[in-house]
Design brief:
This protein is an all-alpha fold. The protein has a domain of 136 residues: Methane Monooxygenase Hydroxylase, Chain G, domain 1, CATH 1.20.58. The chain is built from 13 helices and no strands. Helix 2 crosses helix 4, helix 5 packs across helix 10 and helix 7 packs antiparallel against helix 9. The longest helix is centred in the last third of the chain and has 44 residues. The chain starts with a helix and ends with a helix. It holds the Pfam family ANTH. It comes from Rhododendron simsii. GO terms for molecular function: 1-phosphatidylinositol binding; clathrin heavy chain binding; phosphatidylinositol-4,5-bisphosphate binding; SNARE binding. Keywords: Coated pit, Cytoplasmic vesicle, Endocytosis, Golgi apparatus, Membrane. One of its GO terms (biological process) is vesicle budding from membrane.
Length: 356
């Protein structure tokens, strides 16, 4: 009986919101506000209706002014509600804009508000204490807002919306340009992508509220984002793996730090996404190889430094006594099939010996 009453109250609230929009909205923005209301109803367990969502996305593709007004209306709805289901639907709608919205709508989202160029999705104080279930959903609202902020921030660093179907060309072009990136640019991208995975790992432990299809949709979208992030990390780590002997000491330290952050996420990621994907398994394999490779390069550098100092000392003694000779064959080469970087270690040692 309590659920029926809450649903009835939700319907009444939706009708009241529509009536208020009809009275207060300007004629040119009424359709926008009504469109937002249709995808963010008070029904507690139903995600945005696909037909209404598609209509909203299409409406945002008409002009820059319309797209801007639509984003503003969506943000007003998000920050004006105290109902967890409505807030989650607003956040889901924002997520759909990022994933499959027209470019003009995505662009307006990325610069909202116009004065600051940041997205104020911060809902750290959101609480809906109407029922125990809405209290649980409130934790999801707070986390989901932080997650989307991180997704938008990561997308800005990369130069395209990470999981967007409309950014395919930009992503393809960037993949072609990775070889021209500076080492620090690649490490910066990895840093931002790892931050997104860390935020994913902070998802509430109460993964499901029984019968709540909104959370099923949220976890489905986040899972797709995760695979996109893994793919982008693999591309950049693959490029860095070809440059290990060219990394400076500071760059190798930064890379090692990012690899450690990734490894720290592994256990939680495997809990959240229990179905193993070859792409993800490939990431963990590459992370392990890179950590070993970076360590090997640093050992090689230290060995090269010691050999150089030793040769200077031997040269001094040879000048004094004339009976000591340094033979190149006396240098030590590390080779371990366990690392999978044997050729790299030989190449680094040869480079060290030539410059020593």
């Amino acid at each position: 009986m309590g659920k029926v009453i809450r649903d009835l109250i939700g319907v009444i609230k939706d009708k009241a919101s529509a009536s208020k929009a009809a009275i207060l909205s300007k004629p040119n923005t009424l359709s926008l506000r009504l469109s937002v209301l249709r995808v963010t109803t008070h029904s507690p367990s139903t995600p945005p209706d696909e037909k209404n969502l598609a209509a909203l996305l299409a409406l945002g593709d008409s002009s820059r002014a319309t797209a801007s007004a639509l984003i503003e209306s969506l943000m007003d709805r998000l920050h004006g509600t105290g109902t967890a289901a409505v807030a989650l639907k607003c956040l889901l709608t924002i997520h759909h804009v990022i994933r499959r919205g027209p470019f003009i709508l995505q662009d307006q989202l990325s610069v909202f508000p116009a004065a600051g160029g940041r997205n104020y999705l911060n809902l750290t104080g959101f609480r809906d204490g109407a029922t125990p279930a809405t209290w649980v959903l409130s934790a999801w609202v707070r986390w989901y807002a932080r997650y989307l902020e991180t997704l938008l921030s990561t997308s800005r660093v990369l130069g395209f919306f990470l999981c967007s179907t409309s950014s395919t060309l930009e992503k393809d072009n960037q993949d072609d340009r990775l070889s021209s990136y500076l080492n620090l640019d690649l490490i910066r991208d990895v840093h931002s992508l790892v931050a997104l995975i860390e935020e994913t790992c902070d998802a509430p432990d109460s993964l499901l509220v029984e019968g709540n299809n909104i959370l099923y949709e949220v976890t489905g979208l986040v899972g797709g984002d995760h695979l996109s992030a893994v793919n982008e990390i693999l591309s950049r780590l693959g490029e860095l793996s070809q440059r290990l002997n060219c990394l400076s000491f500071d760059e190798s330290v930064e890379l090692t730090r990012e690899l450690k952050r990734l490894e720290d996420c592994r256990e939680r990621v495997e809990v959240l996404f229990s179905v193993k994907k070859p792409l993800v398994e490939g990431l963990w394999g590459l992370v392990g190889e890179l950590k070993n490779g970076v360590g090997m390069v640093n050992v090689c550098r230290e060995s090269g430094k010691l050999m150089s100092e030793g040769r200077r000392e031997q040269g001094s003694e040879s000048a004094r006594f004339g009976d000591r000779v340094v033979e190149r064959g006396n240098s030590v080469r590390f080779s371990s099939a366990r690392f999978g970087f044997n050729k790299l270690s030989l190449m680094v040692f040869d480079s060290v010996e030539r410059t020593a």
